[in-house]
Each structure stands twice: as structure tokens, then as C-alpha cells.
Design goal:
about 15% strand, Arc Repressor Mutant, subunit A, single chain, WH-like_DNA-bd_sf
Length: about 350
């Protein structure tokens, strides 16, 4: 680690109506293009504390609004969307009072050490030197944090990030690091999405940064409940963005899109997964799974531990098909649900 002094970027917290409205337009653009869905985010019309949740408020958007979003010349959270799209959101988005004074106070007490340590990292020296200012939109909506940057004619950069009000300052630090990684390499926007998450989480949990914030990050692989997933599926359908089913069964062969996948699973795993797919969105009881595994001997051989191990093996193999998405959910005390 090389010690190089950098001037700390100016950070400005904002809560303007204009940018709150614009953020809703940005969220709409990410949903419309499927960016959130492809990266394993779950969209719901309420706030829920989980890093893979997107809170997109349930508003009566017109077809005109979605057309305006579709015709936008950009998908940047740092730039204003069309006036027509923003005017519609302005009319229907409730005015909310956002109290973020505690966040500002806590951030001010930690920002000097945070930027000092980042400036000493070889990973960020060049990028941090380019950053002139950071604008932070504090909002009740969206993900825990969105980000982008704007280049100035003098070569300097302005970071624009959002921070959801129900998250602590460690998530603000995380969003800033993610934004710096994007400045470092544009491929971190999509192609290396998971790589930048891993780098950021490592820095915040296993380096000196952990001593600054002394707070845990929620494991992004932590499963969401089947209720939340069903809420999301229904909400996307209401918005007009119902997802195509990824898993089907044709002539006894399980298909993931156009790909045959029976060979990936043992006979027992196939029996369980086929039943889950056939009965998707419905709970398959532990007894039902036990019957698939052991048939007439299910009472003698019944073992929740063995059932859990089989389900975990299936989950791990499904991850090899789509690492960003969870398909099998636990209905606690009842069994399992497959959400396609």
C-alpha cells in the first residue's frame, strides 16, 4: 500500500424533488430493460431491508410514461430523463419528508478516515485523484445504492450516487467504492458485475475499512421468502413485465430455455426437481418430497436432514445455470416452493 495524499472529494447530500422524481424514472428504465431482473434483483412495491431488493413505488404510470422511458437517450442515474416522463412522476409521486441528519452527522465523523485509507490503496489512487465531487441523493426508493459518474471537460469526475434511507453509512461507503470501480473499468457495469461486488464486500469486511464502520453487510445470497418473490412476480405482471418461464418439461426432459438439463441431476434429484417445476408457485410438503425420494419406505427413512441436503444439491446445480437467481424457496415448517 503506497501512501499518497489526495484531496478529499467534496460530498453534497441532496433531497430535491427534481432528483427524487428523476430517480423513479431511472428505476423504471432499469426494470423496462430487464437490467435488474437479469442481475438477480427482486422488484417490489414496498421497502424491504435486503441488498437485492428494489423498492419501486406502486404508481399509476401511463403508457405514455413507459414510451418516454423507452425513448430515453440514456439510462444514467446521474442525468435527467425527459421532461414528459418526469412531469408524470411529479404529478403522482407522494411527497415524503426524508430525515437524514443522523446519516450526515455519522458520515462526517468517518469520511476523512475512509477517503484517507482509499487513497492509500493502489487499486484506487488514480481514480480517487480524478474525483472532484460526490453528489448523494438520499431517498426512500430503489436499491441500497445506485451510482454513475459524469466527466468534466477538465478531466475531473463528478460521482452521483443514491442512498436509501433505511440503510446505514457502511452501505454509502459501499456505493462509493462501487462507483470508483466503475470509473476504473466500464466493464464493471455489467460484464464484471459480481466481481465488483466481491471486491467491495472484501474491502469493507476484511481491511481497515471494517474498523471504521464496524458493521456487517447483509449476505447478498441470503434467501428471500417465497412471499416476497411471489409479490414481485405479481407486481411485475401488473407493470407489464411478466418474465418468461425459464424452466419447462417436455417429453420428460427438463429444459432451461432451450437447454436439456436432466443429465445434470441424479435420479432422485430429477424426481424432486420435476415435481417442483410441475407444481411451481405451490408448496411441495416435506412428506411429498420424502415420497419422491423413498417411495413406500418413506416413513422408515424419513429425514429432514437428508431432504435438505438433496434440495441444497439441486440449488447448487441450478446456480451453474444462472448464478444470479434463486428458484427454490423454503416454506418454513411446510416444505419447498419453486418460483419460475
Amino acid at each position: 500500500m503506497t501512501k499518497i495524499r489526495h484531496k478529499m472529494p467534496k460530498a453534497k447530500f441532496i433531497n430535491s424533488r427534481t432528483w427524487q422524481v428523476n430517480y423513479i424514472c431511472y428505476l423504471a428504465s432499469q426494470i423496462q430493460t430487464g437490467n435488474y431482473q437479469c442481475n438477480g434483483f427482486t422488484i417490489v412495491p414496498y421497502a424491504f431491508f435486503h441488498p437485492k431488493i428494489v423498492y419501486f413505488p406502486h404508481l399509476k404510470f401511463s403508457t405514455h410514461f413507459w414510451n418516454a422511458i423507452k425513448q430515453s437517450t440514456h439510462q444514467s442515474v446521474a442525468r435527467l430523463f425527459s421532461k414528459s416522463a418526469r412531469l408524470e412522476v411529479e404529478r403522482i409521486l407522494p411527497i415524503q419528508t426524508t430525515n437524514y441528519q443522523r446519516l450526515i452527522k455519522t458520515w462526517k465523523s468517518k469520511k476523512s478516515l475512509f477517503f484517507k485509507y482509499l487513497g492509500q490503496m493502489d487499486l484506487f489512487q488514480k481514480e480517487l485523484a480524478k474525483v472532484e465531487s460526490i453528489t448523494i441523493l438520499v431517498t426512500p426508493y430503489g436499491t441500497n445504492g445506485s451510482f454513475d459518474y459524469l466527466k468534466k471537460t477538465n478531466g475531473k469526475i463528478n460521482l452521483f450516487i443514491t442512498h436509501r434511507t433505511d440503510y446505514s453509512e457502511i452501505y454509502l461507503a459501499k456505493t462509493i467504492i462501487l462507483a470508483l470501480l466503475l470509473v476504473k473499468n466500464e466493464k464493471y457495469a455489467q460484464e464484471k458485475w459480481w466481481e465488483k461486488q466481491i471486491i467491495t464486500d472484501f474491502l469493507l469486511q476484511f481491511t481497515y475499512l471494517h474498523r471504521i464502520f464496524n458493521a456487517p453487510l447483509i449476505n447478498e445470497s441470503k434467501y428471500l421468502s417465497s412471499k416476497i418473490m411471489l409479490d414481485s412476480k405479481k407486481y411485475l405482471q401488473r407493470l407489464g413485465f411478466a418474465l418468461k418461464k425459464k424452466f419447462t418439461i417436455a417429453d420428460g426432459e427438463m429444459m432451461y430455455g432451450e437447454k436439456k438439463i436432466n443429465r445434470l441431476f441424479s435420479n432422485q434429484e430429477q424426481a424432486v426437481l420435476k415435481k417442483l417445476i410441475q407444481q411451481q408457485n405451490k408448496t411441495i410438503s416435506f412428506d411429498g418430497i420424502a415420497h419422491l425420494l423413498w417411495g413406500s419406505e418413506q416413513e422408515e427413512k424419513f429425514s429432514l436432514w437428508a431432504i435438505t441436503k438433496v434440495i441444497q444439491k439441486i440449488r447448487n446445480k441450478l446456480k451453474s445455470l444462472n448464478s444470479n437467481t434463486q428458484f427454490i424457496y423454503t416454506a418454513y415448517g411446510k416444505g419447498y416452493v419453486f418460483m419460475n
